[in-house]
Amino acid sequence: IYVEKTLAIIKPDIIDKEEEIRDIILRSGFTIVQRRKLQLSPEHCSNFYVEQYGKMFFPNLTAYMSSGPLVAMILARHKAISYWKELLGPSNSLVAKETHPDRAIYGTDDLRNALHGSNDFAAAEREIRFMFPEVIVEPIPVGQAAKDYLNLYVTPTLLKGLTELCKQKPADPYIWLADWLLKNNPNKPKLCHHPVTEEPY
């Protein structure tokens, strides 16, 4: 069953409210499909907000979005894009305080509006791919998009596995290759064998 996805961003100035915001997201019927915390450079911000390029607020927007870490999430539910936009209210926090006072609690002005949501399906697809390049966005790509995905994410690993299979010549090549792919899956989380310092709160 196809479930719509949208991109949500908790912006740098309210990242300390992440837990609170995550609770609101889950209570509103969304599933958090993926989450990552990252810090974008001004160049990355420019690429993400490429449609806003040339507008007066663009330099301030890229400076604001690159000012500290942010949290990007893929949210899923029925009509996720429109429902998340409705939950956010107007992008200008000053307007939102008048029209959606219960939803405008995190934003401070017309620029620092705390949270981001994709505008439509095309934007959601582009923004999810930007923040989560390894994710397949449904509907599953076909044609050239499918070939590009396979060439970038599947073929390199499969080629290594088949090369190793030819060298090893195992008795049961199917089982051997299946085991090799499980062990060498590039998307498998890697365990750290050294102490990891916690992020400061």
From TrEMBL:
Among InterPro entries, the record links this protein to: Dpy-30_motif (IPR007858), NDK-like_dom (IPR034907), NDK-like_dom_sf (IPR036850), NDK_H5 (IPR012410), Nucleoside_diP_kinase (IPR001564)
Q: What SUPFAM superfamilies does the record point to?
A: Nucleoside diphosphate kinase, NDK
Database matches in PROSITE patterns? NDPK_LIKE
Q: Which CDD domains match?
A: DD_NDKH5-like, NDPk5
Answer whether the UniProt record assigns the keyword Cytoplasm to this protein: yes
Q: Listed GO molecular functions?
A: hydrolase activity; nucleoside diphosphate kinase activity
User: According to its UniProt record, what is one Pfam family this protein matches?
Assistant: Dpy-30
Identification of the protein by name: Nucleoside diphosphate kinase homolog 5
Q: Which organism is it from?
A: Galemys pyrenaicus
Q: Which lineage?
A: Eukaryota, Metazoa, Chordata, Craniata, Vertebrata
